[in-house]
Design a protein that fits this description.
Length: 195
Amino acid sequence: MIMIEKFLEGNHSFVVGEFARKKAFYTGLAKGQSPKVLWIGCVDSRVTPERITSAEAGELFVHRNIGNIVPHASWTFATVLEYAIKHLKVEEVVVCGHSDCGAMKALGKATGDTYIPLWLNNAGDVLPKVDSEIARMGHPPDEKGRRRMIELENVRLQIAHLRTYPLVKEGEAQGRLKVHGLYYDLETGLISRVP
């Protein structure tokens, strides 16, 4: 079966099932949206924000890209941020990283790709910081432990990038906006806060 056929059949099941049962809810959504959270996450197909949080349609305004990156001075990202904060009036922004992130595995490695390394420059400060932390620890973690440190540090770095945008600075300063770092573990299904 071609995958698109599977998805169309799945949509039919959705329409005759959940959509029909919650007709008033979906009719309301057809008139507009008012999510309270902007979710910045990775495009990894295993990490679907609505599914891992049990969020209803309309609760999350989602921006996904490779490596849950908040790029410096990006028109594309700034547009998402501006729409979410100024027009949708979101109250919280989440940057969510995850385990086994391919983007974080690719950091600092020659891949032969053209665009991915350029994009990952937005996470370039992660490796030196993690390696410095490991040197201070005196006992290096195993490879999986090091990757987790990289994934967590990337969330912190992207939050720092997020806070360079004036809309976020102003929103936090005025108490209208809260910023959170989260981490999703594929092996356990758990989401934890990133300190």
